[in-house]
Write a structure and sequence with these properties.
17 helices; about 45% helix; eight-stranded parallel beta barrel; alpha/beta; globular
């Protein structure tokens, strides 16, 4: 890549209350914040070609360490030129560490100080994922933004378990830092993010943030949310957690979320998001619109000749009727998943652009109020 571009540079352009807008400059391109990253779990954003993902307005996508290490294998991806070349996406890619998937998808796992030994959900084969191995896999994939390896317990676990898990994740964060830095060529052009843990406990969140700041990262994620605690509890944590992290670095809320989640989190100072919801919903007949979510499988759309969302300029809304989308989803046609996924990703990017514009104009409170009035009917 061109040597005159920075490895990683975050610039805040404007603030409005706690909401922030800016940009992350990297060698493969600029990421406008607040940013939503479509999820490309296994080297593809489901039902989308990469050029169409970019056309929605996405600056960066997310790849999944756990799934790619199992199939086709990180070493194979490296042999084939790295993840960017493999999937033909020439802009930034963030890869998660694999820790969350190990905990959530593998029934047979053993957690130790070293890492997590688990069996593949695909074929039952044994694997060990540690901070060092996670850094190695993400290096082989060629990630632009690498996530530290951590453990993510549910918020309803006993507080003693949550505290011990957070402390373990902070020890793993240091090992992730060391492992990342040992990959000299990759480390010279990529960035490393640490992950704050502590569930719903403010004191633990504070200790986690202090440990991460002492280690030093390019960006900081807020982990351990959107795992069943509900929006009210999540927003309660976000009322204080972002401010615990460095102001001059991006703040990334992992695995979130619904459109109203995004607006509420941006209000509280978050800069980056990812979630499978827009693509998963697109495959299941749900479309997101400025007037709220729409279930295209509902019979009331069977003869509706209007667009899914008259305020949306995406190809789905300008070319196809609700009646046709209803027909496709009721018939199980692949095109239905493709068209609705394209719309949902387009809507999410329009939402992010609208928030960036409102923050820049100093009108974010008005935007958020009007959004909730239309989307939530609140």
């Amino acid at each position: 890549m061109a040597s005159d571009k920075p490895r990683f540079r975050f610039t805040l352009n404007a603030t409005d209350g706690r909401a922030r807008t800016g940009q992350i400059e990297m060698r493969r391109g600029t990421i406008r914040t607040p940013a939503f990253m479509p999820v490309g779990t296994a080297g593809t954003v489901k039902a989308m070609k990469v050029e169409d993902v970019r056309a929605t307005g996405a600056d960066i996508i997310l790849g999944n360490t756990y799934h790619l290490m199992l199939r086709p294998g990180a070493e194979r991806v490296a042999k084939l030129g790295g993840l960017h070349q493999f999937m033909r996406w020439n802009r930034p890619i963030l890869t998660d560490s694999g820790g969350y998937q190990v905990m959530s998808l593998s029934d047979l796992r053993k957690l130790t100080e070293k890492g997590v030994e688990f069996r593949s959900h695909i074929d039952g084969s044994k694997h060990m994922l540690s901070p060092e191995r996670s850094m190695e896999i993400q290096r082989l994939l060629g990630s632009d933004i690498v996530m530290a390896f951590d453990e993510c317990p549910r918020a309803d676990r006993p507080m003693s378990e949550i505290a011990a898990s957070m402390a373990l994740s902070m020890r793993w964060a240091q090992r992730s830092r060391d492992g990342f830095d040992s990959g000299q060529e990759h480390a010279s052009r990529a960035a490393l993010f640490g992950i704050q843990q502590g569930a719903l406990n403010e004191e633990l969140r504070g200790h986690s943030a202090e440990a991460l700041r002492a280690i030093g990262f390019d960006g900081y994620a807020i982990g351990g949310l959107a795992v069943g605690e509900g929006q009210e509890a999540m927003f309660g944590v976000l009322d204080y957690a972002p401010a615990m992290l460095p102001e001059d670095a991006p703040r990334y809320l992992m695995g979130v979320g619904k459109p109203d989640d995004l607006v509420g989190a941006v209000e509280r100072g978050v800069d980056m998001f990812d979630c499978v919801l827009p693509t998963r919903s697109g495959r299941n007949g749900q479309g997101f619109t400025w007037d709220g979510p729409v279930n295209l499988r509902n019979a009331r759309h069977a003869e509706d000749t209007g667009p899914l969302d008259p305020r949306c300029p995406c190809p789905t809304c300008t070319s196809y009727s609700r009646a046709y989308l209803h027909h496709l989803h009721k018939s199980g046609e692949i095109l239905g998943a493709m068209l609705l996924t394209e719309h949902n990703l387009s809507f999410y990017q329009q939402l992010m652009q609208a928030m960036r514009d409102a923050i820049s104009a100093g009108t974010f409170d008005d935007f958020a109020r009007n959004f909730r009035r239309d989307y939530l009917k609140a």
